[in-house]
Design goal:
206 residues, globular
């Protein structure tokens, strides 16, 4: 258990695509949006963890078309969010911070971005078996360890949000009166979508 916790913390604090997504959302729309994204991503990751425990990773491993379809859906959703960020209405919402009515949509965005990443399922299928006890039921252990990892990542991602929220006012002052922040958000989301589309199945950080 100690080895698992240490390895989980090291992986969780290592910045990856998920952290970049969350930090970008925070810088663009504020702390509330960042925290909503963290919760959405955590729920999506937990869904992938359960899927890995139930054998979904094996399906992706033996069926490249299934992996490709889910990967393209996730990449397409990221690109869609990038294009959506360029819309005038979206930019107006971002400039005034996350509105209460937007929180559920932001959470949903984070959930689908995480859930539609089949590499996360493969990550759990590769990472967790190293710490399972052969004398205990594998499914219950897998769900337990997955839940612990998601909780650890939730804490570290929240720390990234709080740090980004502190930096956001200064960045907004630098870009005030321009569309730089709006374009930066769109570029990051579209870039993440392209990265997700062209990268292989190995993905070390969720």
């Amino acid at each position: 258990m100690v080895a698992f916790l240490v390895a989980s913390v090291i992986l969780a604090v290592t910045p990856g695509a998920g952290v970049l997504f969350i930090v970008t959302r925070t810088l663009d729309q504020g702390r509330v949006a960042g925290l909503a994204s963290v919760l959405g991503v955590a729920l999506g990751n937990f869904g992938n963890a359960v899927g890995a425990s139930l054998g979904l990773a094996a399906i992706f491993a033996i069926s490249p078309p299934a992996f490709l379809v889910v990967k393209c859906l996730g990449a397409g959703y990221l690109i869609y969010m990038g294009v959506r960020a360029l819309r005038p209405k979206e930019a107006a919402h971002a400039s005034s911070g996350a509105l209460e009515g937007d929180v559920m949509r932001i959470l949903r965005d984070g959930f689908w971005v995480a859930l539609l990443n089949p590499k996360t399922t493969l990550f759990f299928a590769t990472f967790l078996p190293q710490f399972l006890d052969a004398s205990s039921p594998a499914l219950s252990q897998s769900v337990l360890f997955s839940s612990l990892f998601v909780c650890i990542a939730f804490v570290t991602d929240t720390a990234y949000v709080l740090l980004a929220a502190k930096a956001a006012p200064r960045l907004k002052r630098l870009t005030q009166g321009t569309s730089l922040g709006q374009y930066a958000t769109a570029i990051v989301f579209i870039g993440l979508g392209i990265w997700a589309a062209v990268s292989g199945p190995h993905f070390p950080r969720i």
